[in-house]
Amino acid sequence: RRHLRRDIESFVCTAETCEGHIQLFGSFKMWLKHIQHEHRMEWHCTMATHRPIVFSDREKFEIHVATDHKSKVGQALLATLVRRGAQPANHAFDECPLCKVQREVINGEDH
Q: What is the pTM of this model?
């Protein structure tokens, strides 16, 4: 019975950047984890020289660290900071991928 329910209620990755074939997920929780870890990562700079800054683009984070913290961070440490600074975003989308309603308007997973 659970197998049938997973087949009927499959969730599909809607990200245009998703590699490979169509990916199906048996639950909302599994789908959300995929979206957050594969498509919605953020990089947090928490250096003491400024307030925490959040970047939605890895390259911009790397540029920030390389330019604003170059006296404290060498190239070898940069890779460690990129890895440690990466975190899944708290939200899956800025807008619904199907109807384009903005995130602030979406009311829970029933949307």
A: 0.63
d(CA 66, CA 16): 30
Query: 18, 38 in Cβ contact below 8 A?
Result: yes
The least confident of 1-5, 26-30, 33-37, 84-88 is 1-5
For 64, the 3-state DSSP assignment is helix
Give phi and psi for 56, each to the nearest 5.
-95, 0
Cα–Cα distances in Å, from 23 out to 13, 19, 68?
6, 9, 39
Q: Taking a C-beta distance cutoff of 8 angstroms, is the pair 9, 28 a contact? A: no
**3-state DSSP call for residue 33?**
helix
- The number of beta carbons lying within 10 Å of the beta carbon of residue 40 is 19
Q: What mean pLDDT is predicted for residues 20-34?
A: 80
